[in-house]
Design goal:
membrane; G-protein coupled receptor; receptor; olfaction; mainly alpha
Length: about 325
């Protein structure tokens, strides 16, 4: 094993997903296609919502920022992964590694609380529809968004701060395709017990705190939907939150599997698969989930196409 006792600020080497050249090429093409769809899908979602006045509502205000977060943290991970799959140079500097870690935790933690804000929005829309315009005002939406980003910033700042105080002298080889907490902790020759507890507390508070908010909101929503007498009314109420519920389920299940467990239970294969899911696949899936299952977004696309065709005819 390559050891380095001379410094605690080494350049790391990202081992990636495989050593097979054939599999690397397949993964490069696959991840590149996924990333292109991710960029186009999320940018497309942002443009559709911005251009269609009927989508200027609290739910779509949050959805714009969800697309921005998905696009951002996919961009923080995927381009470097593509580079490592295509070249022999897999090194990443100490600063770049922890910058990537900081950005990823910031955006992922922010998304947790943004999803809980979206769940709260659906709760008010279904359970207290008459009070919805008053409660979900522009000021309330901005406060929820700001709180989400501030919480994400605190989580990432604390995590990165406690980790950069560690000495890394066992090896500079990270057995992962990006800089994450568990693979980095395994390289430290310092006592990581306190650091692991701090990270677990902040990650657990972020994931469980937001998940509890989502769960309570949807229990209340389900209770309200069951009280609706008409079948069409139940279907309409459920359709307004079905896409969000699907997105939340996929996102939280992979995060819980990866982060809410002791670092010694880190499994190279299983954790890498889970990481691929929430860093590369979910940012691609979210625009599809929120557009294909959403009649309002489909309607907005149709209106924008007709408007564009009308402008061409006028010319």
């Amino acid at each position: 094993m390559n050891t380095f006792n001379h410094t605690n600020k080494p350049d790391f080497i990202l081992m990636g997903l495989t050593d097979s050249k054939e599999i690397q090429l397949v993964l490069f093409v696959l991840f590149l296609l996924i990333y292109v769809v991710t960029v186009l899908g999320n940018l497309g979602m942002i443009l559709i919502i911005r251009l269609d006045v009927q989508l200027h509502t609290p739910m779509y205000f949050f959805l714009i920022h969800l697309s921005f977060l998905d696009l951002s943290y996919s961009t923080a991970i995927t381009p470097k992964t593509l580079q490592n799959l295509l070249t022999l140079n897999r090194s990443i500097s100490f600063i770049s590694c922890f910058t990537q870690l900081y950005i990823f935790i910031l955006l992922a933690a922010t998304e947790c609380f943004l999803l809980s804000s979206m769940a709260y929005d659906r709760y008010i829309a279904i359970c207290k529809p008459l009070h919805y315009p008053v409660i979900m005002s522009s000021r309330c939406c901005l406060a929820l968004l700001t709180g989400s980003y501030m919480t994400g910033a605190v989580d990432s700042s604390v995590t990165v701060f406690v980790m950069i105080t560690l000495h890394f002298c066992k090896s500079n080889v990270i057995h992962h395709f990006y800089c994450d907490t568990s693979p980095l902790l395994s390289l430290s020759c310092s006592d990581t017990h306190i650091v692991e507890i701090i990270i677990f507390i902040f990650a657990g508070s972020t994931i469980l705190g937001s998940l509890i908010t989502v769960s309570v909101s949807y229990v209340s929503i389900l209770s309200t939907i069951l009280k609706i007498n008409s079948t069409s009314g139940k279907q309409k109420a459920f359709s307004t939150c079905a896409s969000h519920l699907l997105g939340v389920t996929v996102f939280y299940s992979t995060l819980i599997f990866t982060y809410l467990k002791p670092s010694e239970s880190y499994s190279l294969g299983k954790d890498q698969v889970a990481s691929i899911f929430y860093t590369i696949l979910i940012p691609m899936l979210n625009p599809l989930i929120y557009s294909l299952r959403n009649k309002e977004v489909k309607g907005a696309v149709v209106r924008l196409v007709k408007k564009r065709q009308g402008n061409r005819e006028l010319r």
